[in-house]
Amino acid sequence: MLRFRFEQFMLGGRYYVPLPKMAPRQITTVHKRFESIGFKVTESNPLRASKARAWIRVDASGLCSSNEDPSNVLAPAIPDVLACEKRKVSFSVLRDSYFASEKRGNKLLLRLSPRLESQSYWNELRSTGSCALTPDERAVYSAVLASRASPAPLVTDFPVKGSKIRRMGRRQYYKSMLEPAEAVHTLRGMDSTGERNAYLPRDSILSPSPGRIPKEELASLFERLDEWCFLTAE
Predict the structure, then answer these.
(1) Which pLDDT score is estimated for 25?
(2) Cys-Cys with 228: which of 28, 50, 136, 185 at CB 3.0–4.6 Å?
(3) Is the pLDDT higher at 193 or at 5?
(4) Could you report the per-residue pLDDT of 197-206, keeping only the tens digit for each?
């Protein structure tokens, strides 16, 4: 079972907490918690709240950000969030919350949507040796990688044939092409560090591959994301 674990990261001077993908009822639960301790909620989607100089933002897609440590503010609401029933959405809505196809010129690419493992956050995570890929993201993206019919362009902390060195801070990484089985085996998660680790590319884009996950297999996988995803396919 993929159980939720509260963990926060400080990136760019702000605090970030990966959260479950939530339904409106759960956002309402968080809303009530914030108001009960004196925060003024000014928006509901995403939820934005403030109190004195502190501000906090909670996105239903599964991410909290704040300018101050949000542990005491947010953590007490988590048991109620996890007690909520899952919300039924269309299969495409659920799939697109993790990845979607994107056309660039004549190429059809796959854009992944991790909570923190992309863009500006990516640089700081790599330079500090951290990883913020959540258990549900690791499960889904492992399935995506396993379905490929060709090597995947990832970043690794170990070299393979044809790797190109990439330095992040004082740490050395490699732009590598990994065979699907090795990509799955080494893909690092928030709570799964190995001797050899692979990371998603910074832009979260995977190049074309003839491989494709059968809809039934993906639907079954979504049902096993447990406490990290409160959306379920109709």
Answers:
(1) 95
(2) 136
(3) 5
(4) 999 999 999 9
Q: Is the peptide bond before 153 cis (omega within 30 degrees of 0)?
A: no
Tokens representing 145?
């990688």
One-letter amino acid for residue 156 of the chain:
T
CB–CB of 195/157 below 8 Å? no
- Identify whether 234 is part of a domain: no
Which residue, of 55, 85, 115, is where some domain finishes? 85
Q: How far apart are CA 141 and CA 113, in angstroms?
A: 10
Q: Is residue 2 part of a domain?
A: no
Strands 87-89 and 231-233: parallel
The whole-chain average pLDDT of the chain stands at 94
Q: Give me the number of domains the chain comprises.
A: 2
Q: Taking the model in full, what pTM does it have? A: 0.95
Neighbours of 220 (CB within 10 A): 12
For residue 195, count other CB atoms closer than 10 A to its CB.
Answer: 7
